Amino acid sequence: MKKKSIEKGALGKVYQDGEIITRQGDVGEVMYVIQQGKVDVLMGTNDHETLLRVAEEGEFLGEMAIFDHDVRSATLRAQGEVKVLTIDKKNFLKRIHEDPSLAFRIVQTMSKRVRELGDEVARLKG
Amino acid sequence: MAASNPQSGQDKLELVDGSKVAVIGGGPAGSFASYFLLEMAERADLDIEIEIYEPRDFSCVAPGGCNMCGGIISETLVQNLAAEGINLPDTVVQRGIESYVLHMDVGTVRIETPVDEKRIAAVYRGAGPRDIQVRKWGSFDHHLEELAVARGAKVTRGRVTQISMDDGRPSISVKGGEPKTYDLLVAAVGVNSPALKLFKDLDFGYEPPQTTKTFIREYFLGEEVIAKELGDSMHVFLLNIPRLEFAAIIPKGDYASVCLLGEAIDKELVDAFLNSDEVKECMPDDWEPEPRSCQCSPKIAVKGAIQPYGDRIVFVGDCGVTRLFKDGIGAAYRTAKACATTAVFEGISEEDFRSHYWPVLRSISRDNAIGKVTFSATKVIQMLPFARRAMLRMTQKEQSIPERHKDISQVLWDMFTGSAPYKDIFTRTLHPRFLGRLCWELLASAAPVRRSHP
Ligand SMILES: Cc1cc2nc3c(=O)[nH]c(=O)nc-3n(C[C@H](O)[C@H](O)[C@H](O)COP(=O)(O)OP(=O)(O)OC[C@H]3O[C@@H](n4cnc5c(N)ncnc54)[C@H](O)[C@@H]3O)c2cc1C
Questions:
Q1: Is the pTM of this model over 0.90?
Q2: pLDDT in tens, B356-405
Q3: How many other C-beta atoms lie within 10 A of the C-beta of residue B60?
Q4: Cα B50 off chain centre by
Q5: Which residues of B touch A6 (CB under 8 A)?
Q6: What is the complex's ipTM, to 2 decimals?
Q7: Which of B34, B197, B234, B352 has the smallest number of Cβ neighbours within 10 A?
Q8: Among 2.40.30.10, 2.60.120.10, 3.40.50.720, 3.20.20.60, what is the CATH number of A13-125?
Q9: Interchain proximity A85–B87, CB inside 8 Å
């Protein structure tokens, strides 16, 4: 079914509270930029999902799909009403070939996440 | 502060700590150039100063605050900006566009966005038309200028009236002001400025772009009427009106913008368009071409500038090279960013700009050459009723059968929205399936005409 788009002056697509934006295991052809609201990032099996973190306005999500051919590593779920803009993988990769610096912020996001992951591993081990 | 490199002991022209950059023009190209120069400088650990010269106050209603355009921010630009961390807020985006409606004498067809999402923005460049009562949305150009200011650029409200070279460095002054010397001059004055002549007079070979006159008119309809009559769709017209190349009605918040591109647009052409049955059908029942809210006839570039760079001087946006008829703001972003990358990481000599900046402009120019062929093909379709019928039928079938390949729909979508390079659009029209279906529809559409005119 076609989802309701935000009424006026809005870019992106609106998801209602609890709505799934993308599911772990799905094939990813886009990445997401949160325009408004918060998104739960969940990981797990069918019967048990763990909330990894809550992503906020302005954050990139699903960016790994742009660079690898693997399926989605996490489920994204709207927390309250959320507005999300998608960036197409194919066109975006083409633009990155013309202007590699376009990937700078995404690389920054990824490096921040690797850092956080390292901290988390250290915390669990310690 | 000298911009040659004292550490290396060479005469390489480059930006160093303390370098001063003047950006003439605070439209999209000027603001993007300032924003990215500061961003790249930060990445390179370089401390530079940027001063934007801009006479317009974009928070004023037209014409004092407006840079005259259709106000469509393309799907590609919206996505690129999002990837840059620049999101366009609802306070600036008056409407998200989700479909295009193609109007022709032979019928009308709606082309839905290939993704179920609004990724095209309709904005006003200034604070709105002359008769605006309530200001519900802000100016797009003001928003970009603010982004540059937040990064550290300084804005001087004034028109540059003199440019000269002072010991190899650009020196500029505003009316009645003292000349100031800079290490780099970024020209972003568009194609509607008398300042273009000042650059020509510098004698380094710059020739401004070739232009043609266009036409924009604003109508107040009110939010409810717009939602009911025009919706979140851009309305595009392929009508057999001589000299008219492209016509569109773009819904904004409370207003609708009529935008005409063509050859020597005059009152006769404007009247012919506004009084056409197709326009009347698209607008509310009681609508008349008069009274209007605002109107202007800005120039648009049809051929890029010659030699848009020199030692310590570079042209971005429309006054350099832009995309033919589409996504001019997207081209302003691309050229401004390429200019910033070159200036910060490569240098600011003519040779640096030729090696690292010019290739970006050249690729836009080459794509425009293909664009010209595509627009010529559209002109032929515009003139032949059976070709218009064939295009309509092919599009209607694709739009009504969900599983059908969106061949012509995608071509038209990219053509109207300016989302893809002309080369990609042209290549898509060479696909055997596209050609096969088009030939079939052309034959089918030509047949009844032959029967009715034996
Ligand atoms: C009819 C029409 C419709 C269009 N529709 C669209 C559209 O829907 N989408 C799109 O992407 N593009 C569109 N364009 C193209 C778009 O308007 C331009 O590509 C875009 O404005 C280029 O930005 P710029 O910054 O290079 O120039 P401009 O926007 O022209 O900005 C130049 C700035 O320089 C300033 N300036 C000029 N002289 C001086 C001086 N001497 N000193 C200091 N400052 C000075 C001006 O005040 C102005 O602010 C359209 C163009 C036309 C004509």
A1: yes
A2: 999 999 999 999 999 999 888 888 888 898 999 999 999 999 999 988 89
A3: 15
A4: 24
A5: 96, 118
A6: 0.90
A7: B197
A8: 2.60.120.10
A9: yes
